[in-house]
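Suppose you are handed a protein chain with no further information: no name, no annotation, nothing but its sequence. What can you learn? This example shows the usual starting point.
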Amino acid sequence: MKLKLDTKKIYLAMAEKGLTVTEIAKAGGVSQQAVSNALNGNRVGKVKVVPAICKALDFSAKDIVIIED
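A reasonable first move is to predict its three-dimensional structure. Written in C-alpha cells, the prediction is:
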C-alpha cells in the first residue's frame, strides 16, 4: 500500500486561496521543505505534513490522500 497526495487538488486550492507553500507550512507548523517534498511526490513526509496541508486549505485527509495498492 502506497500513500500519495492529490497534488492537483492541493495546487488548485492553493491558487484559489492565494497561498504559497511557505504559508501552508507556517499555518501547519511544519517546515517549508517538508511541504515541498510532499507536494513534489518525493515522499509524503512526516505525519504532521498532511494535517498541516489540511489545516491550511480546510480539507480533511480523505480529501487529499490517495491510497494505492
